[in-house]
Amino acid sequence: MPEKYVERVLLTKEEIQKRVISLGQQISNDYAGKELLLICVLKGAVVFLSDLMRAITVPVFIDFMAVSSYGAATESSGIVRILKDLDCSIDNRHCLIVEDIIDTGLTLLYLKENLLSRKPASLKIVTLLDKPDRRRVDIEPDYCGFRIPDEFVVGYGLDFNECYRSLPDVCVLGEK
Ligand code: IMP
Question: Quick check: pTM over 0.90?
Fold first, then answer.
């Protein structure tokens, strides 16, 4: 198997910080006068969630879901499994799914349909990163931090085989 290494920085921590603040302002305006439940998709979105929730000024609650992802590969299997479900009910609540990245869209489509069946008052999606070129199903985020090209990225919570999550920048992973 070819060795992976961090090839270059795609988004600096300063660029990310600026964009997350502006997403927080936009979301706060859109949900003015309401309470919001942020549904964080583990583990990749944890860093994004922790910055985003502090940039939102309406009252927020948080809960977590874990779904199966790529494991040690960089290609989606297309099979989505819930590994950890929400602790709380979302019935009649305003919910915002917090994702790290949308690639094929398979994970999010499954998640969206699953959560809609629980009858939330509303359900929207915020993603830090979007790779639209890779989309295989019809799903779009309501809020998006950055559109990026078709490259495998790590850092700011995103991993390859559980490595690189703690890098402060979003970086492109290369092969030796
Ligand atoms: P999708 O179902 O193909 O949209 O994949 C979504 C999930 O795959 C994300 O939540 C990530 O966990 C993972 N993923 C997709 N692209 C990347 C990437 O470039 N780096 C790290 N993880 C990724």
Answer: yes
